[in-house]
């Protein structure tokens, strides 16, 4: 049945049984049935209509930096926007960018145009779409601070424009986590600044990130959200969990808020490690840690 998608898209934009471990920063995940690499919003509309007609589930992937895919993979279609919808246009103090653009690349482009506001995004590995979906943030900045409008399609493929005030922004939260729309792009409003100062700020944040975070191992960044009044890293460090390992999954020695794949980790290893950490934290602090990373795929 999946082969029928070749009637609406050229084979260069379709992959069958694609291993998700090749598309996630964790380097974990079994195959998806079909992966679509769209070139335009029109491709996405066509695929959505086809999937709806055939009742096939659709999953949207940005750059795979904030997901944990189960070992059996994903049934149905994965539409990968990361590295696909890639256009950027600078217009005075505003930037229009498509959802698949790498956030750190967008930050560099803003800096080169003497535009301030995206310095915090230096080194963030996800796409603009993923960043909006979860209101990505680091070093005191959040993507919500620079978003003016977001352009999306609903499940039927109808286009919609959202103004930032309507997006229900919260800590690692936006309306897109409840409405199921696909983000196609956004208009960002930045501030004119001094190019050298913007670049110096980004270099400083990049240095801090490299010093504090285990960037030399595959991971999905912070595995848990920050509980109010706590930092996860020091909490796990005090519990002696740094270096605790199940299979190939390990609580990072460098930053205990990260689980790293030391080589050959399965999703099951990571899930077991998450459960173990949660139980330890519950017993010691009476706190329920909430997973920040999105867990997807067939159980
Ligand atoms: N602060 C930091 O240091 C780090 C931050 N991150 C953040 O995580 C974010 C994840 O981005 P990315 O790797 O691209 O995302 P992923 O590919 O990991 O996708 C995560 C989820 O986001 C949703 N999503 C992604 N793109 C879109 C879109 N265009 N429209 C609607 N939903 C979308 C999907 O949910 P669904 O299927 O339900 O639609 C998907 O399950 C990054 O932008 C980054 O900010 C990640 C690592 C480190
Ligand atoms: C990596 C991510 O985002 C990160 C983002 O890069 C950083 C930097 O601003 O702040 C958040 O991490 P975090 O809550 O762990 O904060 P950090 O600044 O890294 O650490 C907090 C404090 O704990 C200390 N710390 C951290 C780790 C550790 O093992 N031991 C320790 O003592 C740090 O030195 C620091 O004083 C984001 N995570 C969340 C869930 O909010 C991500 O979302 O995937």
TrEMBL record:
Question: Gene3D superfamilies, from UniProt?
Answer: 3.30.465.10, UDP-N-acetylenolpyruvoylglucosamine reductase, C-terminal domain, Uridine Diphospho-n-acetylenolpyruvylglucosamine Reductase, domain 2
The protein's location, in the record's own words, is: Cytoplasm
Main location, first listed in the record: cytoplasm
The cross-references to PROSITE patterns, in alphabetical order and at most eight, read:
FAD_PCMH
For this UniProt record, the keywords arranged alphabetically read as follows:
Cell cycle, Cell division, Cell shape, Cell wall biogenesis/degradation, Cytoplasm, FAD, Flavoprotein, NADP, Oxidoreductase, Peptidoglycan synthesis
InterPro entries in the record, alphabetically?
FAD-bd_PCMH (IPR016166), FAD-bd_PCMH-like_sf (IPR036318), FAD-bd_PCMH_sub1 (IPR016167), FAD-bd_PCMH_sub2 (IPR016169), MurB (IPR003170), MurB_C (IPR011601), MurB_C_sf (IPR036635), Oxid_FAD_bind_N (IPR006094)
Quote the catalytic activity from the record. UDP-N-acetyl-alpha-D-muramate + NADP(+) = UDP-N-acetyl-3-O-(1-carboxyvinyl)-alpha-D-glucosamine + NADPH + H(+)
Annotated FAD-binding PCMH-type domain ranges read 28-193
Cofactor(s) listed: FAD
Q: Keyword Repeat: yes or no?
A: no
- Enzyme Commission identifier(s): 1.3.1.98
Q: Where is the active site?
A: 172, 222, 292
- Which pathway does it operate in? Cell wall biogenesis; peptidoglycan biosynthesis
Q: What does this protein do?
A: Cell wall formation.
Q: Which HAMAP family does the entry link to?
A: MurB
* This protein's name: UDP-N-acetylenolpyruvoylglucosamine reductase
Report which gene this protein is encoded by.
murB
């Amino acid at each position: 049945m999946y082969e029928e998608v070749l009637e609406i898209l050229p084979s260069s934009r379709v992959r069958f049984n694609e291993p998700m471990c090749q598309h996630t920063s964790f380097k974990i995940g079994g195959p998806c049935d079909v992966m679509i690499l769209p070139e335009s919003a029109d491709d996405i509309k066509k695929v959505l209509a086809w999937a709806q007609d055939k009742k096939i589930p659709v999953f949207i992937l940005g750059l795979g930096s904030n997901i944990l895919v189960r070992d059996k993979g994903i049934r149905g279609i994965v539409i990968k926007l990361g590295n696909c919808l890639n256009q950027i246009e600078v217009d005075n103090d505003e930037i229009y960018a498509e959802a698949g653009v790498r956030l750190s690349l967008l930050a560099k482009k803003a800096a080169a145009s003497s535009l301030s506001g995206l310095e915090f995004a230096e080194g963030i590995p996800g796409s603009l779409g993923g960043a909006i979906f979860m209101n990505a943030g680091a070093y005191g900045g959040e993507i919500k601070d620079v978003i003016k409008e977001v352009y999306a399609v609903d499940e039927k493929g109808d286009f919609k424009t959202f103004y930032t005030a309507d997006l229900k922004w919260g800590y690692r939260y936006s309306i897109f986590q409840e409405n199921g729309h696909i983000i196609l792009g956004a208009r960002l409003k930045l501030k004119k600044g001094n190019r050298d100062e913007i670049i110096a700020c980004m270099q400083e944040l990049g240095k801090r990130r490299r010093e504090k975070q285990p960037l030399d191992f595959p991971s999905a960044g912070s595995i848990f959200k920050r509980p109010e009044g706590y930092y996860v890293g020091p909490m796990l460090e005090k519990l002696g969990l740094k270096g605790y390992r199940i299979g190939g999954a390990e609580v990072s020695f460098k930053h205990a808020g990260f689980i790293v794949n030391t080589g050959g980790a399965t999703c099951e290893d990571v899930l077991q490690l998450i459960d173990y950490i949660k139980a330890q934290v519950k017993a010691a602090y009476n706190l329920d840690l909430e997973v920040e990373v999105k867990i997807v795929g067939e159980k």
